[in-house]
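Below is a concrete protein record.
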Amino acid sequence: MARSDPQFNLRVPIELKQKVEGAAKESGRSINAEAVYRLEKSFDAPVSLNSTDAEMMTKIVASSMKKLIDELKNEGVESDKLASAIHNVANK
């Protein structure tokens, strides 16, 4: 990065500034280079989950769905109507 690159002022919360400073020190980059690196990285490919994160997310969603279904059943929603509604939403 050259000194001739455009500059712009950016206000950030002190906690974020401290995180960038810490990351810069750890990576051996300047604070500016660390901020640019992280900003560029945010425009890269979408974030992908590793298998552990994906498994945890699946468990959370499954648990939430089970609670929702149980509550709907407790409210008197018939199982066949519930199954039909789930099927319809899943196939949209």
Notes: The two ends are 48 Å apart (CA to CA). The chain has a mean pLDDT of 90.
